[in-house]
Predict the 3D structure of the following.
Amino acid sequence: MDLNDYWQENKRFVTFVLLRIVAFFVGYLVIDGHYSEDIDAAKGTISRHRGTLRKPLFTPGDLSRAEEENDALRTAVATLEEAAAFQPREEFVLDPALGSFPNQYLRTLTRVREDLLPRANRGNMTIEPGLGMPKLSPTKDEEIVRYLEALDVVETVAGIAINSRVKRLEKITIRLDSGLTSRDGLGRIERTTVRFAMRGTSLALERLLAATQRPGDGRVLHVHDMEMTPSRNKDDEVQLDLTLTIARLRPADTKEG
């Protein structure tokens, strides 16, 4: 078959293909004419970015400085955590070698009551005999731990109140962190609060507040909130509502305590 025969039989197909080829080249020329500068600019930008990526973004000096800053931040966080976390005295820390935890709790509570109530009586200070402890002794280990820490705070503050000549320590309320029994669990910071309602002269209560920030054992008791108001019945007496926080800190990836 010669070309003339092929053309006669396929001229519609050949014409269609040639028109498409012509249309492609015309479109290419139009696009290249209108957008060649943009294309060249984009290619230049890509080339520059590739060159930048081949270069190191940080020098060894940058890494060294970042490591030093990280170490300094870790040290600062550890210092703050140590200052914020409550450190109970040895007697108020459970020891598996000393018998069951409920028995240790009862022994410590009995000792504090037998020591504190007579001291308050000798100092002419009225004190809530229950010391804010639950009427039914806790049986769960995690609750016993928290109530012993709260008892440590109660004895410390009551001792300061006696020495400051506070007249009445009328009510003590202890609240464990609600996360201890909730489905959501405990947060990054667990808070047990101990609230004291007391009455005395303004001088006595000012001494107490000052002493809570520098107890003899070196610990600081963290104030959650406080309110001091004049007594309605006595001109020389004021009322102090003081709430202290016992903080327990956990690692960031720990959800439960």
Observations:
- The first helix runs from residue 3 to 54.
- The two ends are 92 Å apart (CA to CA).
- The chain is about 50% helix and 15% strand.
